[in-house]
Specification:
- The structure is a single chain.
- The protein has 365 residues and is of the alpha/beta class.
- It has 2 domains: 152 residues, Rossmann fold (3-Layer(aba) Sandwich); 199 residues, Dehydroquinate synthase-like, alpha domain, CATH 1.20.1090.10.
- The protein is 55% helix and 12% strand.
- It has 14 helices and 8 strands.
- The strands form 2 sheets. The protein has a 6-stranded parallel sheet with strand order 1-8-5-4-2-3, with helices on both faces. Strands 6-7 form a two-stranded antiparallel ribbon.
Length: 365
């Protein structure tokens, strides 16, 4: 049986205007210290402050940990909000979701959660996932639970105008990885395929333009929509080996998540293409996006898809050369492989890899 639902209400437009329905609320805004001083957030706070009690929780750090969740819980106990607004990239949204989820596990009512992404990458505003880091174990663990879903997601392209070029590239490639992994995920359906294919097409269409013209609203909106579409797609279809590896090289080698995905995406496509079903799905994507013709066989189409991704990397200046210390990588490769094989995202990969295959992919990075 296939069940497809989009529990999160997605709103597209000016965030300040879309939040005008909040009245008489106690609102805790979860963001990092940099965004706390941004003009965009100040505008949102100003629009809310006359009708609501507002407080900012600014202790968001990259790759949130269990300790960060505990600090957030203490803040909730002091302020006692009835509404959370997660404002930022994946770390801010994941932390707000994890805090809310923890409250539910402790028997409290779930707070109304509104997610406003300021990057076009994780799609966390519409997923039931939150990635938590365990630094003492050099590991990232994805949590999956329906209680992690935000109630509303607001896509406001102007919130992404100031994202630096390198971050735009890395988060855009993260979107592409989400879409492509959803295409071959074992729970993929016609519904998730439609969203994933559109998301991938938008990345190819707009990522390079957004890096050249950061204030191009059409390009920024296209990427923000792609991120959301890919999030809904993988929330149903699942992720796979690329994310399982990216989680661990991020946790151990401290490679940013989008960049980590970009480094492993191509070798994972090649590995998964040993499955005739996965190869057929990659081939369909290549044909749909115009990278391959109907006269080419599936494996030839897979190569056309890989070539298209390589061209995109070149257009946006994404360097696929190794960014990790070779000696450190070799020191931790066994631990990283263990973590990959136990990462929950691997369960929806089209092929379950042998340990030697995972080690080979990590060793080649």
């Amino acid at each position: 049986m296939i069940t497809f639902s989009i529990p999160t209400e997605v709103q597209i437009g000016d965030a300040s205007q879309l939040l005008s329905d909040l009245n008489g609320k106690r609102i805790l805004i979860v963001c990092d210290s940099f965004l706390a001083n941004s003009e965009n957030l100040k505008e949102i706070c100003h629009s809310l402050s006359s009708r609501n009690k507002i407080e900012l929780f600014t202790k968001v750090k990259p790759d949130p940990t269990a300790s960060d969740i505990a600090v957030g819980i203490r803040e909730l106990q002091l302020f006692k909000p009835n509404t959370l607004i997660a404002y930022g990239g994946g770390s801010a949204i994941d932390l707000a979701k994890a805090i809310n989820h923890t409250l539910v596990n402790f028997g409290y009512d779930k707070l109304s959660l509104i997610a406003i992404p300021t990057t076009s990458g994780t799609g966390s505003e519409v997923t039931n996932a939150s990635v938590i880091s365990i630094p003492e174990r050099n590991q990232k663990i994805p949590l999956f639970d329906r209680s992690l879903l935000p109630e509303r997601a607001i896509l406001d392209a102007k919130q992404t105008f100031t994202v630096p070029s390198q971050v735009t590239v890395a988060t855009g490639i993260d979107v592409l990885t989400h879409a492509i992994e959803a295409i071959v995920g074992i729970n993929a359906s016609h519904f998730s395929d439609a969203l994933a294919e559109k998301a991938a097409g938008l990345v190819f269409q707009y990522l390079a333009l957004a890096t050249i013209e950061p204030n191009n609203e059409q390009a920024r909106s296209g990427l923000l929509n792609a991120s959301c579409l890919a999030g809904i797609a993988f929330n149903h279809a699942g992720l796979g080996l690329a994310h399982a590896i990216a989680h661990q090289i991020g946790a151990t080698m401290h490679v940013p998540h989008g960049r980590a995905n970009g480094l492993v995406l191509l070798p994972v496509i090649r590995f998964n293409s040993h499955s005739t079903q996965a190869a057929a799905r990659y081939a369909r994507l290549a044909r749909t996006l115009g990278f391959a013709s109907s006269y080419e066989n599936d494996l030839q189409c897979v190569e056309r898809l890989i070539e298209a991704i390589c061209r995109l990397y070149e257009q946006v200046g994404f360097d696929v050369s190794s960014v990790v210390d070779e000696a450190e990588k070799q020191q931790h490769i066994q631990h990283m492989t263990d973590c990959v094989l136990n990462d929950i995202t691997l369960t929806t990969n089209p092929i379950q890899p042998k340990r030697s295959c995972v080690e080979a992919i990590i060793a080649a990075l």
